[in-house]
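Q: Joint fold for the lines below.
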Amino acid sequence: QLQLKESGPGLVKPSETLSLTCTVSGGSISSSSYYWGWIRQPPGKGLEWIGIIYYSGSTYYNPSLKSRVTISVDTSKNQFSLKLSSVTAADTAVYYCARHITGDYGDAFDIWGQGTMVTVSS
Amino acid sequence: SSELTQDPAVSVALGQTVRITCQGDSLRSYYATWYQQKPGQAPVLVIYGKNNRPSGIPDRFSGSSSGNTASLTITGAQAEDEAGYYCNSRDSSGNHVVFGGGTKVTVL
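A: Joint structure:
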């Protein structure tokens, strides 16, 4: 059974870079059928798409975050990562990683990690 | 602001039917996907594509679409269906993913 798990610091200082890793177990991140994505949710608010990556390294980012976001993949470790630079308090959120499927049926995030809370504060 | 619009909240009596809507121009071209999220938990996929349910999702959940509006219907709502529901799809460019603002469903 495929599982995803986020890891990384729970506290980041303003202006610094937030770094998270998602470890995929129970399946290969190199499958040609899937993308892998990051979604966040500020406390008490809705979901916000950050971006997705294919195992080959091709990426799509949320235009509102694109200047600060980098998503990368390490197929040897079955992991993909998120870096968000120049963070502010507005970046405080639960960050989820998820598997993204796409086809004639549209798009969906079908398997999610448990999420990890990241607080931006000095 | 989101390119997909949802009503913030809706209530339904136990056992009755509730429809949750998601509006956006991109829905004329792309299917909406629906997620259920309970407090403190990650979202769970409930409907994708025209009207597909992942394994384990009860058949009281169904999806439909007309024009720029997609709908998630819960037929015979149960207490455990009380949750937040989010739609998502592609944006108007087709190159990015967007989420609706979410609808809080209360089962009375």
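Q: Anything notable?
A: Chain B has a mean pLDDT of 95. Residues 21 and 71 of chain B are 4 Å apart (CA to CA).
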